[in-house]
Recover the amino acids of this structure.
């Protein structure tokens, strides 16, 4: 099986070393680079093209949320997990709005972290359950007014529900009998209508509206 290629971004050397030992010790994972600050993470993501990025949120130079934002502009398919000690709502919202697919606390155990890496690599979205509840309760902060449900067609709504469940475009096309090209075009339209820029934001938007249930987010 191909190894999952991981970039670790954290300003603490011991944390980076520990994560590297954990990932590489279990097999199936290769740490392709380590970054000590956000700007370095952006540069290394560009040159190494990792499958999954473990991103600390609070770092010098460029913080984690801004690094995520820059990486997503250059590589929209990047799979990023915000891994942090902080439960503050603003950190969570900043990371998710920037494009992170997951937000986990550094208190998770090794098995939970590996499961998260596997899930995000598959295309799922995930958060610590406590974090998920807080994010959903705070999503109204700084966000535009929600458009009426009627703004989305029945076909667009079907695509959005599958996106919120972590289904990739090729599988969405197969499930709905569309071409991949059609799915991609309709996704762009959905983003425009919802005033979002990526799959994570669209999925959380659908949750906020009640179009999908929380337990479907990483189904």
């Amino acid at each position: 099986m191909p190894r999952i290629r991981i970039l670790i971004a954290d300003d603490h050397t011991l944390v980076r070393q520990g994560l590297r030992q954990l990932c590489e010790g279990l097999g199936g994972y290769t740490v392709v680079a380590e970054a000590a600050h956000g700007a370095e993470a952006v540069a290394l993501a560009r040159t190494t093209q990792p499958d999954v990025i473990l991103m600390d949120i609070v770092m010098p130079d460029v913080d984690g949320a801004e690094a995520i934002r820059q990486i997503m502009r250059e590589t929209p398919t990047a799979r990023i997990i915000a891994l942090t000690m902080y439960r503050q709502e603003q950190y969570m919202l900043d990371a998710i709005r920037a494009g992170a697919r997951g937000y986990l606390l550094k208190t998770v155990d090794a098995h939970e972290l590996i499961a998260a890496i596997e899930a995000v690599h598959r295309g799922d979205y995930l958060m610590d359950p406590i974090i998920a509840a807080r994010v959903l309760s705070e999503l109204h902060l700084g966000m535009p007014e929600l458009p009426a449900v009627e703004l989305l067609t029945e076909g667009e709504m079907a695509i959005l529900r599958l996106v919120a469940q972590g289904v990739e475009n090729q599988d969405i096309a197969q499930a709905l009998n569309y071409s991949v090209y059609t799915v991609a075009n309709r996704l762009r339209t959905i983003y425009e209508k919802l005033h979002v820029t990526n799959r994570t934001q669209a999925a959380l938007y659908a949750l906020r509206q009640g179009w999908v249930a929380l337990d479907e987010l990483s189904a």
About this structure: The chain has ten helices and six strands.
